[in-house]
Amino acid sequence: MQSAAWYITLISVISLIGVFYFVISNSKVKEEYSSFSKAWYGVRGKWFIFLIILWVTLLIITLKPFPLPSQTENYSDKGDQIIDVSGHQWYWVMSSDTVVIDKPVVFQVTTGDVNHGFGVYNEKLELVAQVQAMPGYTNKLVYTFTQPGKYRILCLEYCGVAHHGMIGELNVKES
Ligand code: CUA
Question: Whole-model pTM?
Fold first, then answer.
C-alpha cells in the first residue's frame, strides 16, 4: 500500500514536471489571443456563476442539519429530559445519570473552573454527542438516544494533569 502510494506520487510529480517544462518551453511562442480569449472569457463568466450557485447550494444543504440546537429556547416547558452538567478539575457533576431512549435529552453544560469538553460516548467508545463546557456560559446540547446502555462522559479538552480522569457515566434505559 505504502509503495503504491510512493509510485503514484513519483509518477504524478514527474508528469507535473513534464507539464511545467512544456509550458515554459512554449511560453516564448507568440499566438493570436483575441479570438481565443473572447470565447474563454464567456466560459469563465459562466463558470463563475456556476461556482457561486454550487457554493450557495452546498452551504444550504450542509448547514440545514446544523447540530447545535437553539440556545435561547426554554426546554423545561417541553417535557424533555433535562440534565444540568458542570465540569470541574477533574470530575463531572450531573443532576441526573439516568435517561430513557427515544425522548430528547437536554444537557445544560457549564463548568466551575476552566474550559472542559463534554463528550458522550456509547459502549463501543464512539462519540455520539459533544459540546464545549465554558465558565460563565451554559451551552445546551440536545440528543435523543436510540440505543440503551452504559454511556461514558469523557472530557474533550485538555484541562490539566488529570484531564484523562474526568470520566462520568450515563445510564440510558428502554423507555
Ligand atoms: Cu476536563 Cu479535560
Answer: 0.65
